[in-house]
Specification:
Layout (H helix, E strand, L loop, with lengths): L19 E5 L25 H11 L1 E5 L6 H15 L1 E3 L4 E3 L18 E3 L13 H6 L7
Parallel strand pairs: 1-2, 1-5
Antiparallel strand pairs: 3-4
């Protein structure tokens, strides 16, 4: 298939046949207002609308959440726990969270997978024209402008 073809196949997950949506964690789901404090330290609230977006996205995509935290098991566990606390209901008798049905469909890989589309606050869409070094140096994520 040639570059720019409109009939390029979707990159899908083998398990459910949905296109893969890869979401960055910090700055996309987690507001990241406190900055980096460690792979397993996630102190800030979500970006407005993140939870509602996830609930909708899992209906249409295989949602994969990735971060620089992802290379460490404790980083992946911290992200899962952070999200479970946002969307779930805590049961003190079992010391566990009851989460919506869609929560278990989210994947938390150690490395960035091939995906149909990525949402990342620190990315520039490449459209066939290289940005200047000045543009790259001037780049700021949406929440730091």
């Amino acid at each position: 298939m040639s570059a720019g073809s409109t009939s390029e196949p979707l990159i899908v997950d083998g398990n459910d046949g949905k296109p893969i949506l890869c979401l960055d964690f910090d700055g996309v789901l987690h507001s990241y207002t406190s900055g980096w404090q460690g792979a397993d330290v996630i102190p800030d609230p979500p970006v407005q609308g993140a939870v509602e977006f996830l609930g909708l996205a899992v209906e249409h995509f295989q949602v994969v959440i990735i971060s620089s935290r992802s290379h460490l098991p404790e980083g992946r566990e911290a992200m899962r726990d952070w999200l479970a606390e946002l969307v779930g209901v805590y049961d003190p008798t079992s010391d566990s969270w009851t989460v919506p049905h869609w929560f278990s469909s989210i994947k938390w890989p150690a490395e960035k997978p091939p995906a149909h589309v990525f949402i990342d606050d620190r990315a520039i869409t490449f459209r066939g024209v290289w940005p200047s070094v000045g543009e790259l140096l001037a780049f700021r994520p949406w929440n730091r402008t």
